[in-house]
Amino acid sequence: MKKYLLSFLSVMVYLLLCLALVLYFLNSTSSLKKEKNPLPKTQTVPKHKKPNIAKALPPLPLPKKEIDLIDVDFEKRLADIDAKVGDPVFIRIFKEESLLEVWIKPADEYLLFKQYPICAFSGHLGPKLKEGDKQSPEGFYKVTKHLLNPKSKFHLAFNLGYPNAYDKAYKRTGSYLMVHGACVSVGCYAMTNAKIEEIYKLVDQALKDGQKYVQVHAFPFRMTEENMAEHEGSQWYDFWTELKEGYDYFEAEKLPPHIMVKRKHYTIHEANE
Is 119 assigned a catalytic role? Predict the structure, then answer.
């Protein structure tokens, strides 16, 4: 009997040890699962989303629309830049581009008002030298009240004031070199009648409203470094370098420089407007 009791106890101890091992194994498995998934059963892990690049990046700026300053309406352009007829004006002429620019000063600096294609001019690149050479002048000129001609046979006209002090220093001759209408030229810068009407109106009223004179800068071409390099072999290159100083000053300051002539050379000084 004692022998059977010992065997029974041994079996029970064995079973208890097995049960303890099973419970230990189950407990360990449960702990591992919790470590792998620490979130509560009711919480779901959000799916990875790619960033919305379209929303993250700022919108690209739209390219600036180029303003047509040739065909733009006269009155509309005045309104666009808050200017009026009678404000000070400044004119630049470019032979190679066959273009006349009118700049206007509604406030502290000049703004490009309009561009006018030149209908006709005479000669080639380079200054006017003498009466009858049918060459349109290049240089820095001033238009005053007495140089306006509202009764010109070329519709409307204003004289450039050629020869100026520089031209006279080199004994250059010529007379009645103008910007006018009628689209014909024997040394002048000719415009269509419609275009000279707009240009003349601005110049005339600016002088009436107190501008002492309107500067007109006549260039062979736009005086960029590239254009200067292209014409480096010209006999007029040294002369053009003097014109370029005046061109560069206005490009930087948006005010026409004060120009003098000393010892047969143009000298560029700070604007006095």
Answer: no
